[in-house]
Amino acid sequence: MNLLEEIYLSFLRIRNSLDFPLRQRFHPRPRKIQKKSHQQTDILPSYPPEIRSKADDQIGRLISDYHFQGFTFDHASATIRENLFYLAMLDEAFRQTNISLPENLTAADIGPSSWFYVHALHSALTWFRATQPRSVRLTGYEVDAYRLYSDLHTRRDHALGNMQGLDRVEYLDRAFSVQPDGFDVITLFFPFVFEKDHLEWGLPSGMFDPAGLLKTAWISLRKGGLMIIVNQGADEHRAEMKLLKTSAIPVAASFHMDPLLFTYPLDRYIITVQK
Ligand SMILES: C[S@@+](CC[C@H](N)C(=O)[O-])C[C@H]1O[C@@H](n2cnc3c(N)ncnc32)[C@H](O)[C@@H]1O
Question: Is 110 near ligand 1, meaning CB less than 6 Å away?
Fold first, then answer.
């Protein structure tokens, strides 16, 4: 690491040590976000012509298997596309692990941020290889729930807005903590593996403990339960695999996610762990 980078990280450490605790104590009161209504959008034209037919096939299957038609009527095009991509990631993770999910399922999502993808996560848990909807209880644990967005709503306000229409879904403004045998499924979409990302997202340096978080999640998984970890970029994926190995947490499946439905600057990699 060069000197400039070291100075930059030191600056972030000082800034976060001051403004993170302030944000937890002093934040605006909860304010409901009014759901905007959208006209039905045809998202297919937003895919390049050469992949449109393949994307159409995959979207059709996901919508049918996961009963996701309702969501595609009433959201912005980018949100629909990204939710479909999260649905595809979860679908692929379940299939590659060949998991059987229980009839009554308890799940945790660690670090949901604004939870723009909560409908995809809920549908995946409810409908994977099911003919009747499963009974799902889903809790999101967000340690930095009061970051302020440009519309002056907090992250929590946005998450609660995104959760509209879902039952037995809860968003807690706290770090995930050990709950032995508490969950059938635990998801971690982009847990921080490198300190720089953790600091750039505004979290205090002392909270950076990626191996500790994995162990906490592992202990909280029921026997037969599934943990899904999604990372961005090959470097982060390799570092996550190393952390799992040193923590003696066995990997069930590990793969590169096909970016067909959504393209990010860094490709997504998925690891599953079964207890
Ligand atoms: C990179 S963001 C991922 C956001 C979201 N899951 C997504 O898919 O876009 C990581 C999130 O995890 C939260 N976080 C980090 N450590 C956490 C912990 N121990 N418990 C709960 N949330 C945590 C951060 O505040 C941040 O919102």
Answer: yes
**Ligand 1 atom index nearest CA of 213:** 19
Q: How many domains, in total, are found in the chain? A: 1
189-223 pLDDT, tens digit per residue, is: 999 999 999 999 999 999 999 999 999 999 999 99
Dist. CA 233–CA 240, nearest whole Å:
11
**In terms of Cα–Cα distance, which of 72, 78, 191 is closest to 123?**
72
Assess if residue 239 is contained within a domain. Answer: yes
- Count CA atoms within 13 Å of residue 270 on its CB side: 25
Residue 135 within a domain: yes
Give a yes or no: residue 264 inside a domain.
Answer: yes
pLDDT per residue as tens digits for the range 49-67 = 999 999 999 999 999 999 9
Q: How many angstroms from the chain centroid is the CA of residue 45?
A: 26
3-state secondary structure of 206: helix
